[in-house]
Specification:
By secondary structure, this protein is of the alpha+beta class. The chain has three helices and four strands, in the order E-H-E-E-H-H-E.
């Protein structure tokens, strides 16, 4: 099961703030590997090309749909999402699919 998210950061953030926040999001989310059952792989790309209209991409892989649902509610994930992601993003697009 794949879980892909694209985020656009808040326009109120300076370029310097955006770079710091992107690094914190990457560190926080990639740090979940090994902490959440069923999470097989997780990568955050924060260095898109200038042609991109998103600031960050999460690419994660789960054992199955049940593991993905568990991840969404897992306290470690919620902590990262609530402290590092949600306060700084203005848009979020998600695509979950079977790989």
């Amino acid at each position: 099961m794949k879980h892909v998210i694209l985020w656009e950061l808040d326009d109120k953030l300076s370029a310097q703030e955006k770079e710091r926040i992107k690094e914190e999001i990457k560190y926080g989310l990639e740090g979940l590997k090994g902490k959440i059952p069923g999470l097989l792989g997780i990568h955050v790309n924060k260095d898109g090309l200038s042609s991109s209209n998103a600031d960050l991409m999460l690419d994660s892989t789960f054992e199955d749909e049940a593991a993905l649902k568990s991840y969404a509610q897992h306290p470690e994930h919620v902590k990262v999402a609530d402290s590092k992601v949600r306060p700084y993003t203005k848009t979020r697009m998600c695509l979950d699919y079977e790989a």
